[in-house]
Each structure stands twice: as C-alpha cells, then as structure tokens.
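Session log. Operator J.P. requested a structure for one protein chain; no other inputs attached. Running the standard single-chain path with token output.
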Amino acid sequence: MPIRPNQKSDFMKRPVFPFAILLFLSACGRLDSILYAPAQTPKSWLQIQPFAEFQFASQNIIFVQPSTSIIVYLLGVLTIAVGFYFLKIRESQISRLWWGIALLLWGIGALLAGTSYEAFSYAIKCAGREACLWTSWWEVLYLIASVWSIDAMTLAIAYSSTAGKLRKALSVYAIANAVLYFIVVIIGSFIPIKFLISFELLLVVAAPAIIAFFVINGRRYYKNKLRLDLILLGAWLWLGATIAAYFIYLISGNTASLWAKGFWFSENDVLHIGLIIWMLYLAFALAPQVKDS
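Structure written below.
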C-alpha cells in the first residue's frame, strides 16, 4: 500500500519483520538470474494475460488476472479461517491441532502464491526490469509453506488414523521431509537450480504423503467401517479430483482462447474453486468428526 506523507511515521512503527525477511532474501539470493521463459518484457507480460490498472493515492497499481486473484485470496482467507476453527475446537485432540496448523500454512501459502503468481506479479517480477523474472521469494516461501502444510497433515493422520510403529514412522517422515525440503529449496534459491524451486518438485515431494493418506484410510475403512475414515477418504478423493481437473484444463489450452474472448477463467480458477469446496468440506464434514485414534 502506498505511504502518504502524513502516514510514514505511523507506518515505521508497525511490524515489518516479514517484509525485512523478503528484502534480505532478495539481496542474498540469486533468483534474479532466472528469467521467465519464453522471455517477456514488462510490456509483453501485460499482453499475454488480463489485468486491471487503477490509481491509488499517487501511484498506478497494475492488478494482474483480477478475477483469479480475488478467488485465490478468498481461498487463502477461508483456509486460514478453517484452520483457526480446527484449533478452536481441538480440545485435547492432537490430530485437530495438526489439522489447524496444516490449514494455516496452506492459507498463508495461497496468499503468497496469489500475490506473486497473479495479483502483483507485474510489480514483483517485471516493473523496472528489461526482462521479467521466472520466480520470486514470495513463491519460494509459498513452496515451503505448502510442503510444510502437507507434513502437518501427515502428523494429523498419524494421530487420527494410526498407532504404534506406523504413527512413529509417519511422524519421523513428516519432520524429516519438512527439514530436507527446506534445505533443498534454499539450495535451489541460492545456487540457483530451477527444478529445486519448481511447482513440479513440490508435487513430487507431496505426492507420497497424499497417496499414503488414501491407503491408510482406505484400509481402515475396509476393515472397520468407521465414519471418520470414510470422511477422510472423501477428502482425499476430492483433492485428487481437483488436482486432476487442474491438469486436464491446463492441457486443454482453453485458458488462452477464453482470455482472447474476454473471459478471465484459467486452470488456476479450476484449482482454487475446487480447493474452496474442499475447505468447506473439511470444516463441515471433517472437523467435528476427527479425533485421535
């Protein structure tokens, strides 16, 4: 938000720690050496996607992919709210605690992603540059938050759906995965290595846990016919269907043709709308039922 002259002193008193971290990382990292491919100038960046331009105070703000940005911000806020709901009703259930943490991380990741991939991508990656950047520290933090969210879900499933050695194994896996992925992403950011800070690697890292969730709850439901396992199976099936729908729409190439006709709908909208429905399912169906095994 632009700082008006009479607001500057008040602003300096506010916590700016998160922004200081981003500035420090930007100065130390080498993300600026990875350019968008195919190469895009600031002008061509705005020619390949919808945007809205408006003036706030004395500055012009370029808001990229307006409808998609609004939807992903809605997803982020809703997810954080659902995370707080899990924490509010957690009582003594460790599984609800970890579900709450997982959704808080997921929501923060959604806000970070929406800011850099869509809403303010021009300001973050293009403004004042000859060529636009491929990524940013906003996106790196999104990757970390997303994987940590899945790791927190792993701990939640460990407490709600397993016991003994399997619970211990899942707990060790979740902690080790979180630490190792953080190290990998930091290495990828500072060397830099594009694949190590890619969405594709995020999927590779997250997939084993999601597959394990489906297997664990599927086997438990087959053996015990517990309602909680059926609800969790429904959650994993919807999440898988949402991700599949995202890739099917991406491969279809409909986004560019719709944008050319003035319809601002993309594969990201498919993903985010599916996840909004998923979050509502978690809040209304899962939250009241989940408990430690």
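Operator note: Residues 1-15 have pLDDT under 50 and may be disordered.
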